[in-house]
Automatic annotation (TrEMBL):
It comes from Rhodoferax mekongensis. Gene3D superfamilies: MTH938-like (3.40.1230.10). It holds the Pfam family DUF498. InterPro entries: MTH938-like_sf (IPR036748), NDUFAF3/AAMDC (IPR007523). PANTHER family: NADH DEHYDROGENASE [UBIQUINONE] 1 ALPHA SUBCOMPLEX ASSEMBLY FACTOR 3 (PTHR21192:SF2), NUCLEAR PROTEIN E3-3 (PTHR21192). This is Mth938-like domain-containing protein.
Amino acid sequence: MKFIPDALQGPSITGYGPGWVEVNGEKYHSSIIVSSQGVIQPWSCLRFEDLGEPHFEELATFASELVLFGSGANIRFPHPQWLRPLYSRRIGLETMDTQAACRTYNFLSGEGRKVVAALII
């Protein structure tokens, strides 16, 4: 699916499909972090099975109010203990499949929210 977002201040997710996500017109085939504050970087969590607290510690370093966790093709929830780094910094977390996280990221970023999308592809 391709779509054109409203005017965003940070990076925008311009498309997605099985095994890829497109940010600002560039396709990514492995897990990434996208921040409305301008960050686009690889995420060391390549599969849901590799997920652990250090991955959420990394996400807690961003100046965000909310993390959108895209868990892959299906919605899968992280262990609650892994979320401590986020909650201790008063950062919210929403878990959804990666495609839903892409759509939600663009919507919230377009509203000027400080949001991070952590996407398992």
